[in-house]
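Reviewer comment 2.1 asked that we show a complete input and output for one of the modelled complexes. We chose the BES case, as it is the one discussed in the main text.
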Amino acid sequence: MDFSIKTIDGKSTTAQVKTGCIAVGVFENKKLTEAAQALNHKGDITAAVKSGDITGKPGSTLLIRGIDGVAAERILLVGLGKDQSIGSKDFLTATQAAARVFASLGAGDAVVALPFDQIKERDADWALCSSVLALRDNLYRFDRMKSKDEPLPAGVKKVAFAVPASTADAAKAAVAQGVAQANGMELTKDLGNLPPNICTPTYLANTAKKLAKEYRLGVEVLDRKQLQALKMGSFLGVTNGSEEPPKFIVLKHMGGKAKDAPIVLVGKGITFDSGGISLKPGAGMDEMKYDMCGAASVLGTFRAIAELKLKLNVIGVIPTCENMPSGRATKPGDIFTSMSGQTIEVLNTDAEGRLILCDALTYVERFKPAAVVDIATLTGACVTALGHHNSGLFSRHDAEHDALAEELLAAGKKSNDTAWRMPIEDSYQEQLKSNFADIANIGGPPGGSITAACFLERFTRKYTWAHLDIAGTAWKSGPAKGATGRPVPLLTTFLIDRAAPSRK
Ligand code: BES
Ligand code: MN
Ligand code: ZN
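Response of the prediction step:
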């Protein structure tokens, strides 16, 4: 989909816009937005609204054709809710509804003339960026594994956003930000949805190399021998049962000053989690191809920030392998020495995410990071705790970590990709006691997402760190099965705001 900005000044011009469809807003109390009023000189819009054909509720739409004195072939009325100051959720619902109408319209282009600058607690940049994301999300399909191309639906291919000329430059930048984010999310969704026989650790490494080539990023891919030399005993233990070789990916976007400490993103990249010898039950096991969604979100975020040429130093680190059973697989009771020197008793081979992440978290000490955020489909317990709406956010509880957590929570709210903070406390650490090693890899059923975070915490004491458990948010199950692209919006927004703290 192609996006542009159309400048409109003065009430009369909306009526003169030549386009297949112009989208304007109406409210529940039957009031019209300014742009809608400008199309109403013969009273056609008022008549349509009065007839009751559209309620004005967020999500309601009404398409009308051939209005006298209006250059656009169609008018799409879009319900915006109660009144002039539009709630941000209502605005998102409205743009999603408009996106669905556009997708099956007989017109190739459209102009969206909604009151972007009248959203409660948000600015026009937010509204434009969110609109781009809604339009792109509605178009997303994953059909590359089907043998026959499904016929493309007709529908709008070009969208222009109508804004006053004085704000055109800011609007262009906001649209570019939306497009970059949508491109990043698309990569994240594609990688998640690809089958695990194609999206292997090698495939993820090649994707990183391709990104690096396209956007001139630094990239390094370490193989088994190099991981042995680094003494990543915990990560390597997880790879014991599989034929597919493990990879350790390091991506660098150095858009900031050379001396600025980088933000490091670490993504869990289990391309298939069978559970290993602690085998998972069969039902729904296919969904464990999504166990690399943390890694995919790091790659998607890199695509977005590279496209935006973000002025910030960001390093992405992805430990990636499969978790498989075999005669050589890790057994419950095995003890490994992690790169940090801490020994780990593997009581359950299905708690493998923390085993690959802990070595990556030790590895990143070398970057002297400003902050480290790891992203992982880490625990089923997080889904039990928070459902599918919020990612779990974990961070130590001191001033420095509270500040980082607040930044991440705010970025999540702003980008409609929310997280909820969970506790990390020493009292939970006791559940990780091992009789035979420094630490066990499971803490029993109580507070499973918290003890997983507490495990990671032991490897992050040299820097400021936060952990996002995305087990409930990275993909959808059921008839709408598919990757969501989360938390790319949260991460991208966090980094954008870090690069320009004044524009929060
Ligand atoms: N990848 C899973 C977590 C998961 C499970 C995410 C279901 C989404 C849906 C992780 O590796 C895992 O298996 N965790 C175990 C930990 C347990 C053995 C302590 C879990 O959550 O059951
Ligand atoms: Mn597992
Ligand atoms: Zn897993």
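The domain at 2-162 is CATH 3.40.220.10 (Leucine Aminopeptidase, subunit E; domain 1). We note this here for comparison with the apo prediction described in Section 3.2.
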